[in-house]
């Protein structure tokens, strides 16, 4: 009988099971207690012998329970230690290093160059009033640029997502309250209902504006040639084509050469060899008036640079949409360079 009990204890797997077995055999209502109670039914001699035996059994069972409990505790501790072991020879995890989006890097570079030329950064809202986005810039209500085809309108009357950064020209002139010079560069997001390899509905421009006495087209060309040289390298070629914008007169567009001649030879990204990067011109007298300046005494130039075009030209990207799909496998190519 005792051997069977000890054997049962031996085969217990955990502390909970051990408790159950303890109750069964030596608990207050357990088997041994019952046996002790039953002793009173026996004749004296037999009772003495059986009593001694039961006491020995109790001692043996209790000892066995204690040994088993200690062993189970040790076992649990061993398992815990194995689980918590740190293998110091494992290689570390290499952290992924973040990088700035190529558009961000190009935008900052343009800002740096313009700030070195003395332009201050200025900002305007992306949800703009029709007056700042159109009327103040001489774009009258029947102008095609105001067509549903081009602009995103907002559910609130007289508001649009700005179609260019040019409204910041007016806001900056107003903020200067007639002081000279007004010399600002306004980077930011702009919106048009376009979507193809070279146009996306949300794009970025940097507006430049200089108002002072005696500013003319020659100042504009000089500034833009300097800007192009700083952005693309001194060997870049530029050309100005005459153009039309309601808010400048005369108006031009600037192209830069597309043949990239560097360490890896020459690469041409467009058939004509030229890519357009900005619109510009001499600020229209009406626009000066709308900004609170007198065209009889001051003049100025303005330009609107397409950051996407500059980025494409610098990095040799031929589909603009790739820049905004944010596939890291694509963007990570531009970690260095540019
Ligand atoms: N706002 C014009 C555009 O988005 C660019 C421009 C800016 C032209 C300033 C002239 C002067 O195309």
What small-molecule ligands were found? phenylalanine
| Helical run tally | 12
Low-pLDDT segments = none
Structural category is: alpha+beta
Question: How many strand units?
Answer: 11
Order of helices and strands: HHHHHEEHEHEEHEEEEEHEHHH
The strands making up the biggest β-sheet line up spatially as: 1-4-5-11-10-7-6
The outline comes out as rod-shaped
Percent helix: 40-55%
CA-based gyration radius: 42 Å
In terms of DSSP E residues, the strand content is 15-25%
Give the terminus-to-terminus CA distance: 88 Å
- Biggest β-sheet strands, sense, barrel: 7 strands, mixed
Architecture overview:
- The structure is a single chain.
- The chain is α+β, with helices and mostly antiparallel strands and 338 residues long.
- Helix content is 41%, strand content 22%.
- It has helices at 2-10, 15-26, 31-38, 44-84, 102-116, 130-133, 167-176, 217-232, 285-290, 307-315, 321-324, 328-331, and strands at residues 120-121, 127-129, 159-161, 182-191, 202-212, 238-245, 248-257, 259-262, 265-268, 274-283, 299-306.
- The strands form 3 sheets. It has a 7-stranded mixed sheet. A two-stranded antiparallel sheet has the order 2-3. It has a two-stranded antiparallel sheet with strand order 8-9.
- Helix 1 runs parallel beside helix 4 (44-84).
- The longest helix is centred in the N-terminal third of the chain and has 41 residues, at 44-84.
- The relative contact order is 0.11.
- The site of phenylalanine (PHE) has 10 residues, from strand 10 and strand 11.
């Amino acid at each position: 009988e005792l051997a069977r009990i000890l054997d049962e204890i031996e085969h217990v797997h955990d502390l909970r099971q051990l408790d159950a077995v303890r109750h069964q055999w030596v608990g207050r209502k357990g088997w041994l207690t019952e046996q002790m109670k039953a002793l009173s039914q026996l004749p004296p001699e037999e009772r003495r012998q059986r009593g001694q035996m039961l006491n020995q059994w109790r001692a043996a069972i209790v000892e066995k329970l204690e040994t088993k409990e200690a062993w189970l505790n040790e076992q649990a501790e061993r398992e815990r230690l194995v689980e918590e072991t740190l293998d110091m020879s494992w290689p570390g995890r290499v952290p992924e290093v973040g990088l700035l989006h190529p558009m961000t890097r190009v935008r900052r570079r343009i800002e740096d160059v313009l700030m070195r030329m003395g332009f201050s950064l200025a900002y305007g809202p992306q949800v703009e009033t029709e007056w700042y986005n159109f009327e103040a810039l001489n774009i009258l209500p029947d102008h095609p640029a105001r067509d549903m085809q081009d602009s995103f309108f907002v559910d609130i009357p007289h508001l649009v997502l700005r179609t260019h950064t040019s409204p910041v020209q007016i806001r900056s002139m107003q903020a200067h309250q007639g002081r000279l010079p007004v010399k600002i560069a306004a980077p930011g997001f702009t919106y048009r209902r376009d979507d193809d390899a070279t146009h996306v509905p949300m794009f970025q421009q940097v507006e430049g504006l200089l108002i002072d006495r005696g500013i003319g087209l020659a100042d504009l060309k000089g500034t833009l040639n300097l800007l192009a040289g700083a952005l693309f390298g001194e060997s870049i070629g530029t050309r100005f084509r005459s153009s039309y914008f309601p808010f400048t007169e005369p108006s031009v567009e600037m192209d830069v050469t597309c043949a990239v001649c560097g360490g890896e030879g020459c690469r041409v990204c467009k058939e004509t060899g030229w890519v357009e990067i900005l619109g510009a011109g001499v600020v229209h007298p009406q626009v000066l008036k709308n900004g609170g300046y007198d065209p009889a005494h001051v003049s100025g130039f303005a330009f609107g640079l397409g950051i996407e075009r500059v980025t494409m030209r610098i990095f040799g990207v031929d589909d603009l949409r790739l820049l905004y799909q944010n596939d890291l496998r694509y963007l990570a190519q531009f970690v260095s360079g540019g």
